[in-house]
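Re: export button greyed out
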Amino acid sequence: MPNSSQSPAPEAQAHEPRVVAFLCKWCSSAGSDLAGVSRIQYSANATPITIPCTGSMSPLYVLSAFNKGADGVLVSGCHPGDCHYMEGNYLARRKLYLVKQLLQFVGLEAERFRMSWVSAAEGAKFAEVIDEFVGDLRPLGPQTRLKAKH
Amino acid sequence: MSKRTGVFVCHCGKNIAATVDVKKVARELAKDDGVVFCEDYVYMCSDPGQGAVIDAIKENDLDGMVISCCSPTLHEKTFRDASELGGLSGFRCEIANIREQCSWVHKDPDEATDKAIKISRAAVRRVQRNEPLDPIGVPVTRRALVVGGGIAGIQTALDLADAGLDVILVEKQSTIGGNMLKLSETFPTLDCSQCILSPKMVAVSKNPRIRLLTESEVESVSGFVGNFRVRIKKKAQYVDPELCKLCDDCSQVCPVAVPNEYDEGLTNRRAIFIPFAQAIPASFTLDEAACLGLKPVVCGKCEEVCEAGAIDFDKRPTVFEEEVGAIVVATGYDLYGMDKLGEYGAGRYADVLDGLQFERLCSASGATEGHILRPSDHKVPKEIVFIQCSGSRDPENHCAWCSKICCMYTAKHATLYKHHVPDGQAYVFYIDIRSGGKGYEEFVQRSMEKDGVIYLRGRVSRVYEQGGKLRVLGVDTLSGRNVEIAADMVVLAQAMEPSKGTAEIAKTLKIGLGKDGFLAEAHPKLKPVESVTAGIYLAGAAQGPKDIPETVAQASAAASKVIALLSKEELHHSPTVAKVRDPYCTGCAMCVDACPYEAIGLVGGKAAVNEVLCQGCGSCVGVCVRAAIDVKNVSQLQIHEMISAVLAA
Ligand SMILES: Cc1cc2nc3c(=O)[nH]c(=O)nc-3n(C[C@H](O)[C@H](O)[C@H](O)COP(=O)(O)OP(=O)(O)OC[C@H]3O[C@@H](n4cnc5c(N)ncnc54)[C@H](O)[C@@H]3O)c2cc1C
Ligand code: SF4
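Workaround output, generated via the alternate export path:
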């Protein structure tokens, strides 16, 4: 399968990655609130969408985001064992692992999809997760593999 | 679908407006499809701000509302209520968080403004497909469970019963009272601990509304606020408290001797024993692990001598299933293990004690009947050293936190010592003195000035035995000199840590723990007695180190929260529950298995949601291959719309 983004063009270096961050309401969204309350600065490249639980993530959300031009997709939930709804995040982990494999199979860089566990008490970690992800996405340049061609 | 959406962009004073160009956000949003009203305002949550929401709805005939402001955890309810006042269903109002998730975390105004537009736009797209919902009414069980029978649990149970609620009080030991029952006298007034505690313990046992289950633990919990189902396991009750006459004949014949945990291991007890004369239930109890009689061929002496016939070796554990509307967790604290402070000779020398052991020495109900004697040779210690912050405030090696009460109880111990041994000398090693509290500072000052306790500011490096004395090596940082004291007894003010099993009970109840292992409150300032799970509350030292006054205050606060909760006829639970799109459902039952609340069943070959049980987690959404189930107001269509909004160029 040809991969159009294998060697990023020079101007791709300047590309600012656009990230969709799916945050579960109870842990990661609350963690992002804590980052805010603590005024921890991080990259503005990720826009959050709050969902009830990572267990409610449909694989289609991930595909849809890439299709609409996202350079990276993050799913962040409660730590394993701490899910507000008991086991939603285990469900998510199993399911999204398959999504990751599917994405690789269709030729997308594995680095473009990430899952993390951020609790309501981990404001600093939330900021780190975003900064790290955006930093890792930068060298990859724009995502064109799954982006809809107009 | 909403066609007349209104948007308010809040400045939050300068909190948002300093980084985000709020006027630009409003200008951009005004261009979006279906947005017929868009304004910025300095403080949306203020009274005039809320008034503006109401007016805008009425004047513009709005059928959807987005407030771009702070986190929904703060003001979602405020603005939903305002919407209702304006005649718009609260569920047609959504919050776009452009403060915590944007203005507070980004410096670059262009980037922040751009992101604020995306967040707000996503909320607009979502709200346009929100259904106007009504809360779901759920009946409440007007009964509460209190876990832990220390002073915190006792106070909570009494307050609840006083308000006319039925209470189940579960305590894992064989008596209620907790650590307070072991204390001698209490700072800052030096009133006798047992004298102020026992009337409350008796009140628990006499109150017809309180069902006391000692030697019991919560095994599992299901359900939700207003309607929890709990399974409680009670150990086999070999001695019937109704029949036991407290004659003590049984323990006289018992051949077993094991360290008495209720006396902090300073004395031994029999396998059949009563923890304290004041124990509630007032009964002897049989320690399964120590008893030989459970194999009757080996022993069974106590059963033979018990004239009341109160002993029965054939008893089995019992399991109760109970329904309660609310739960209060008051599982208390333990002292940090002495084995971890080898440098202070803890665990090695009999005369190096922890704070609770010293309480037992001072207590009239203790082994020495209130005389302070060395465990090693029963001599009166003439020089005694107290070491504060033992295991506390040492993030590298031990606990990071300040245990809060040890400055006070050490001052108390030194004072009590001087009252018992007027010609003795007490030394206290401290880092600094924390005596915030009514009458506390005065109490510490008195111990120094009136009782001549010598306070040395500095850490102790080592304690070792030499020539029958405990040599304490430390520094006095005020004089800059090394100090060596030849002491007869050393008392360590051990750190307070969450009681053993706290992590397990937190897991069973699905409530959070802080980094330090104490139970986590829902908000450090504004929700100090609520756990993160609705309907479960916290009281006492299980939530963090506390003295008795603070514990009692928190216990009553937790009780009042429960009373408020259970005074409602019905609880309302969020109507954002799962909804099956019938035509698409094939009845594969994947969702039935995925639902953690057993809220979905198959009816007529299609999935059907029990709205009372459904918590709206969406686990079903995640597994349905035909996208035939949605959570109301966060439907898959709405999420796809939000994704488009976020990624729009
Ligand atoms: C040496 C020392 C001296 C002190 N002196 C004073 C003083 O002078 N004045 C003062 O104000 N404070 C004093 N305190 C503090 C006081 O002991 C506490 O504030 C108080 O005991 C806290 O009460 P509690 O009910 O929260 O916890 P605890 O007393 O620890 O009670 C918790 C109870 O819960 C039970 N439990 C635990 N886990 C479970 C479970 N899973 N299921 C069922 N039951 C469970 C335990 O068996 C226990 O009965 C002193 C503390 C120490 C260590
Ligand atoms: S949203 Fe679905 S999985 Fe979650 S409780 Fe409701 S029916 Fe069950």
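The longest strand of chain A covers residues 19-24. The button fix ships in the next patch.
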